[in-house]
Automatic annotation (TrEMBL):
This is Phosphatidylglycerol--prolipoprotein diacylglyceryl transferase. It is an enzyme of class 2 (transferase). HAMAP family: Lgt (MF_01147). Its main location: membrane. It holds the Pfam family LGT. Its EC number is 2.5.1.145. Pathway: Protein modification; lipoprotein biosynthesis (diacylglyceryl transfer). It comes from Marinobacter orientalis. GO terms for cellular component: plasma membrane. Keywords: Cell membrane, Lipoprotein, Membrane, Transferase, Transmembrane, Transmembrane helix. GO terms for molecular function: phosphatidylglycerol-prolipoprotein diacylglyceryl transferase activity. PROSITE patterns: LGT.
Amino acid sequence: MLQHPQIDPVAIAIGPLKIHWYGLTYLVGFLVGWWLGRIRARKPWSPITEAQLGDMLFYIALGVILGGRFGYVIFYNFGAFTSDPLMLLRVWEGGMSFHGGLLGVMFAMWWFGRKVDRTFWQIADFVAPLVPVGLGAGRIGNFINGELWGKPTDLPWGMVFRTAPDALARHPSQLYQFALEGVVFFIILWWFSSKPRPRMAVSGLFLACYGVFRFLVEFVRQPDPQLGYLAFDWLTMGQVLSFPMILAGAGLIVFAYRRNAE
């Protein structure tokens, strides 16, 4: 049995100014995404130039933050929002949703595509391989905060989290998600997108892989206390939101290759 390292969530404090590790992980994700984006922008088949990359990442950053916060409130904590609408603005209290962030990023990519005269799928296929780095960094932030821990387990790497309501060893599900959504996901997408693919194929693989990884991890992740299980004593909101991603991703891949073969 392991003990969760009690890391102060505040990385730097200068008087009243506090910089949290969670915020720094987002910064790391965007900086590495920018560096990887420069590599992709130099490819002859890139839909955007290096000069356009900064603007695109700005749009995406807004989509992540606004979509992630709105998604968390709507999908996971709508009851609290109805009684306290200002909670939507208190981002420092935590609460971001990947699925909401995805919707925000999709809107941002469409908006940016219109600005540079590119289609949504051209931008989406370019951006998809950059995302796992940010996802992985965010899961490290979750681990540092001691949040989103998993179910009790007797496995030797079970971990006791001081933020949990008991002293039970639990799955360090944030690290599982870091490994799957960050490392493995990045390797798959970067390899697949390293040469030209039919339009929509990279985006389809992104949706399918993330949906599968998230659906699986939800079996060992503690469900959100305000929601619990939605059905069958195992179905979570994360799985409900991920299943359509799997279907949509598989459909996009099939459609992309069939259209390319015609």
